[in-house]
Design a protein that fits this description.
The protein is of the alpha/beta class. The chain is 38% helix and 17% strand. The longest helix has 24 residues. The radius of gyration is 20 Å and the shape is globular.
Length: 345
C-alpha cells in the first residue's frame, strides 16, 4: 500500500538552515515541501530544488492574508518556522527592523497555525530558535539547559526570546501543541557571508583582512548545519517528545581566535594543492591577514547548551559527534572554495 504524502511547510527555506533542511526533507519520497521565503538580499536566490514534490512561494510573513491563504490551501502536517533576521551586528544598527520582522512574523505564523487547528486540521508547529536567548556564560558556569533564565543581550536575541515567549503563551493560553528548539552556532554550506566563518573565509580567499572582535577569546559552541537538520527531522518523525522546549548543541566549544587560526592553518595546507593555485595564494600565510578590531557592544562572552534533555527523548549521539568537527569544518572550507569564483553564495 502506497504511503500517504506528508506535506511539510518551511518558512525561510532559502536561508542557511532552511536550504539544508529542504535538501534533506526531499530525500524522503513521501514528503512534499512548501517553502515560504520573502527573498531578501540574505536569501540564496540561486537555489533551485527542481523537484515535483516542492513548491515555492515568494511571500513575506508580515502579509497575513497571503500566509493564511497558503496555509489553508496546502494544510501541511508539520511547520518548520525558520524565517528570521539573524545577525547580531545588523540588529544593533537597526533594532526596529528585527523586532518587526521576527516578532510580528512569528505572531502571524502562530495565528495561522491556530486557524488550521481551529478548523480541525492536525498539524504541529516547530519554531527554531537560538541559544542566544539565554545570554552568556562565564568559563566556570555549566551549559545552558531548558530551565535556564532567558536573558538576551542584543536586539536580535531579544527578538528571538520574544518569539519563544509568544510560543509559550499561545501554547498555555489556547492549549495547543508548539515545539521550540534552541540551537548553538551553525556552520556549513550556504551560509550568508556576514557570519564569522564564511565572512572571514571569503575575506581570506580575497586576501582581505580577517576581522576579529576584541581579543578573540569569546567562546561559541558550534554545530554542523547538516547535523542540526538531521536532529530536526528526527524530532519531526518522533512520537516520543514529551516537552515543548529542547536545546540542540554541537558539544564543540572553541574561542573565535582559535577557530580562525584553525581555518587559516587549513588554508595554508590547501594552498599546496596545485589545482587550487588560482584561488589560494601560495605566497601568503593566511594567519598574517588576522586583524583585531574594536569589540561590538554587548558582545556575549560564551555560549554552551546541554543536550541532556533531548537525548533522553531521542538518540542524537550518533548524529552529533564532536570528534567529527574537523572533518565537517574541512568540508565547509572546501565548499566555500569551490563556490567562491562561481558566485553561488
Amino acid at each position: 500500500m502506497k504511503q500517504k504524502m506528508k506535506k511539510i511547510l518551511v518558512t525561510g527555506g532559502l536561508g542557511f538552515i532552511g536550504i539544508n533542511l529542504i535538501h534533506k526533507l526531499l530525500k524522503d519520497k513521501n514528503i512534499y515541501v512548501i517553502n515560504i521565503d520573502k527573498i531578501s538580499k540574505h536569501s540564496n536566490k540561486n537555489i533551485k530544488f527542481n523537484n515535483n514534490r516542492y513548491i515555492f512561494y515568494k511571500t513575506n510573513l508580515l502579509n497575513k492574508t497571503a500566509l493564511n491563504n497558503i496555509l489553508l490551501k496546502h494544510r501541511p502536517e508539520y511547520i518548520f518556522h525558520l524565517a528570521a533576521e539573524s545577525h547580531v551586528d545588523r540588529s544593533i544598527k537597526n533594532p526596529n527592523f528585527f523586532i518587526n520582522n521576527n516578532i510580528n512574523a512569528t505572531m502571524n505564523i502562530l495565528n495561522g497555525y491556530k486557524l488550521l487547528l481551529d478548523e480541525g486540521h492536525k498539524v504541529l508547529l516547530h519554531c527554531i530558535s537560538t541559544d542566544e536567548i539565554y545570554g552568556d556564560l562565564t568559563l566556570k558556569q555549566n551549559a545552558f539547559t531548558e530551565k535556564s533564565s532567558i536573558l538576551p543581550n542584543s536586539p536580535y536575541s531579544a527578538s528571538k526570546a520574544s518569539c519563544d515567549l509568544l510560543c509559550r503563551a499561545y501554547k498555555k493560553t489556547y492549549n495547543i501543541p508548539i515545539l521550540v528548539t534552541n540551537c548553538s552556532n551553525n556552520f556549513g554550506p550556504y551560509q550568508y557571508p556576514e557570519k564569522l566563518i564564511p565572512f572571514n573565509l571569503l575575506n581570506a580567499l580575497n586576501e582581505r583582512d580577517i576581522l576579529i572582535y576584541g581579543d578573540g577569546k569569546n567562546i561559541r559552541d558550534w554545530i554542523y548545519v547538516g547535523d542540526h537538520v538531521d536532529v530536526l527531522i528526527k524530532i519531526m518523525k518522533s512520537k516520543k517528545m514529551k516537552y515543548s522546549n529542547y536545546n540542540i548543541g554541537g558539544n564543540f566549544e572553541i574561542t573565535n581566535i582559535e577557530l580562525i587560526l584553525k581555518i587559516c592553518s587549513k588554508l595554508n595546507k590547501l594552498k599546496k594543492n596545485t589545482h587550487l593555485n588560482k584561488i589560494l595564494n601560495s605566497n601568503i600565510d593566511y594567519r598574517s591577514l588576522i586583524k583585531f578590531i574594536k569589540d561590538r557592544p554587548g558582545h556575549d562572552f560564551r555560549y554552551a547548551i546541554s543536550n541532556k534533555l533531548i537525548q533522553k527523548e531521542i538518540d542524537i549521539k550518533k548524529i552529533i559527534n564532536r570528534k567529527k568537527f574537523e572533518t565537517k569544518l574541512d568540508y565547509t572550507i572546501n565548499w566555500y572554495i569551490k563556490n567562491h569564483l562561481s558566485q553561488k553564495i
